[in-house]
């Protein structure tokens, strides 16, 4: 019985999402960079449909929302893939999504399956995309595939410049 | 001095027909352009600065500044907006546009003119000016009436937040771009499609040229030529991110330049009016678009 249910969920059948509200555990490492002028990166954490590269939801956006003269929102466009696919449709600051920029180091994040973008996410395969853009620095997007719908193994990927290790697990 | 006079005379003639700037792109390598610093912006306090010039190389101001008095702005809601802080140097003009509303702004210059000849009491008369003046000054049903209609348009597009289409509605006059792919949503290495219309109808068999900027650092110009289908659509894939100059021209019938007040030696007595050989039209379209990094 249990088996047939999980098969159904993978087939994308309409199953009440609350019945299997899992959480998405994510770690994002902001690397320490030895550069002359360091600014904490702007980071967008979003879910991508791997089939057509469209966005299935935005989990978090770290930016300088309190910047004078709205200069924080001015650089949201630099997280270019997220901006094109999701960000420009949203208004900022966004409840439960907007957050302050973060210092170098690993950051543990838990996104509740009962809230926000995950609440209505259909079971299936997705990419978690972590996209970073740094003032006077570079831009990088890291993709980690994961299956939504039931608890799974830890998946991991690593950036090469603007992002360190990114891990994802459905719990 | 003589050269300066010629230039001045020309400017006057051009101004007289309401061609505020876009000096005719005659058979020279001079290309008019308006390059915005960004085509995609976010945030409520968005401003964009634009460089405008007529140059040989793209996009280096090496020939002449573009005049800014004819530059117009259409806001995302279709209302007329304005340029700010305009300044003109030797080689380049610069101005700003404040994006007070979310959506796509069109920044452009456009001109339409008519050259005509006809006979009145056995005498050849000639006219050169705007379509409005033509309607007023040239008698309806004039004998032996011949006209050459010219239009030119030079555009660029800037989007704050989500791209919109209102500002890009064609006017139905001259050669115009109609978005299929939105001009601020062109991504390098991805196919994009634009449709072209001439006087509002599909411009079939139109040759469209796309030339990347940054020519100074490339051995080859890298121009891409595409031809439109019966629906006026061209599809292209820009290989690299960057600013591109888009150009297309249509000519038919007689499109001879010159005649009284044009091209003659300055100060010389105007040559006797001669009739135009036939009807004709010419239309040119120019735009600067950005191919964004994927």
Automatic annotation (TrEMBL), chain A:
Keyword Signal in record: yes
Keyword tags: Signal
InterPro entries: DUF2271 (IPR014469)
Top-level taxon: Bacteria
Signal peptide: 1-21
Alphabetical list of Pfam families matching this protein: DUF2271
Protein name: DUF2271 domain-containing protein
From TrEMBL, chain B:
Keywords: Signal
Family matches, as InterPro entries: DUF4198
Pfam annotation, one family: DUF4198
Signal peptide: 1-29
Superkingdom of origin: Bacteria
Protein name: DUF4198 domain-containing protein
């Amino acid at each position: 019985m249990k088996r047939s249910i999980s098969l159904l969920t993978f087939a994308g059948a309409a199953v009440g999402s609350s019945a299997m509200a899992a959480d998405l555990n994510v770690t994002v490492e902001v690397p320490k960079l030895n550069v002359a002028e360091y600014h904490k990166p702007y980071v967008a954490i979003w879910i991508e449909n791997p089939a057509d590269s469209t966005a299935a939801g935005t989990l978090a956006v770290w930016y300088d929302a309190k910047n004078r003269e709205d200069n924080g929102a001015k650089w949201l466009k630099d997280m270019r893939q997220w901006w094109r696919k999701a960000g420009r449709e949203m208004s900022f600051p966004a409840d439960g999504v907007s957050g302050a920029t973060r210092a170098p180091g690993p950051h543990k994040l838990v996104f509740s399956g009962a809230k926000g973008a995950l609440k209505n996410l259909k079971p299936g395969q997705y990419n978690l995309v972590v996209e970073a853009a740094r003032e006077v620095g570079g831009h990088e997007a890291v993709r980690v595939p994961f299956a939504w719908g039931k608890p799974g193994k830890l998946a991991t990927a690593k950036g090469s410049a603007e992002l360190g290790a990114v891990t994802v697990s459905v719990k | 001095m003589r050269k300066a006079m010629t230039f001045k005379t020309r400017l006057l003639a051009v101004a007289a027909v309401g061609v505020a700037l876009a000096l005719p792109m005659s058979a020279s390598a001079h290309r008019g352009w308006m390059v915005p610093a960004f085509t995609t912006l976010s945030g409520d306090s968005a401003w964009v600065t634009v460089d405008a010039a007529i140059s040989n190389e793209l996009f280096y101001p090496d020939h002449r500044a573009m005049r800014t008095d004819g530059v117009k702005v259409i806001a995302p809601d279709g209302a007329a907006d304005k340029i700010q802080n305009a300044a003109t140097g030797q080689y380049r003009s610069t101005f700003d546009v404040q994006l007070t509303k979310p959506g796509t702004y069109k920044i452009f210059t456009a001109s339409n003119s008519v050259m005509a000849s006809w006979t009145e009491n056995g005498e050849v008369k000639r006219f050169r000016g705007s379509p409005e003046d033509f309607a007023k000054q040239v008698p309806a049903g004039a004998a032996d009436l011949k006209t050459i209609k010219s239009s030119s348009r030079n555009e660029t597009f800037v989007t704050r937040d989500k791209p919109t289409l209102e500002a890009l509605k064609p006017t139905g006059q001259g050669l115009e771009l109609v978005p299929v792919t939105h001009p601020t949503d062109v991504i390098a290495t991805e196919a994009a499609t634009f449709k072209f219309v001439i006087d509002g109808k599909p411009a079939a068999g139109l040759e469209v040229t796309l030339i990347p900027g940054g020519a100074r650092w490339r051995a080859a110009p890298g121009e891409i030529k595409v031809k439109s289908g019966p629906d006026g659509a061209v599809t292209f894939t820009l290989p690299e991110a960057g600013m591109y100059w888009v150009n297309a021209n249509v000519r038919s019938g007689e499109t001879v330049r010159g005649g009284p007040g044009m091209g003659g030696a300055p100060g010389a007595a105007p040559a006797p009016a001669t009739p135009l050989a036939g009807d004709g039209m010419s239309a040119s379209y120019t735009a600067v678009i950005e191919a964004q990094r994927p």
